[in-house]
Amino acid sequence: MIEHILRFMTLATVIVGMAAIYAALHTNNRRLGADIFLRYSERVSDLRRRLPVAAFLERGTAGDVELTADERRAVHEIIHSIFELYELKVHGFFPPAIWKIREPDIERLLALPVFQQELAGLEGRYTRHPRLAAWLEKIRSQQETA
Prior knowledge:
Shape: elongated
Helix content: over 70%
Largest sheet: none
Number of helices: 5
Distance between the termini: 75 Å
Strand content: under 5%
Radius of gyration: 23 Å
Number of strands: 0
Oligomer: single chain
Order of helices and strands: HHHHH
Structural class: mainly alpha
């Protein structure tokens, strides 16, 4: 009888230990994903501050916006940061719920004429990433219908 109780206690200890390890790994992965997302968001925000206010105006068309070399570089860095962030989301490095928080803001940013102008110049770079290309096309088509 005591032998059965000890076996049961050992089994229960192993199960509780496994549950604790799973919970710790799950929590750590979520925390890491949130940290990655926040760092990329901070990087994009810092780059956005380097752009003139005129870059965020929705009037005008792509191709009409003149940028200095530093401003163009900042726009390209923002686009590449968003691309990296999107790929991290696609590959599950952070929960989709975190992405949903900023997705409308990111889509609105990429729909601005200055970003559409620069995306047109970078179009060939993303042909190997069909999910990203489809997402960018969806943003472009939403802007055209608006």
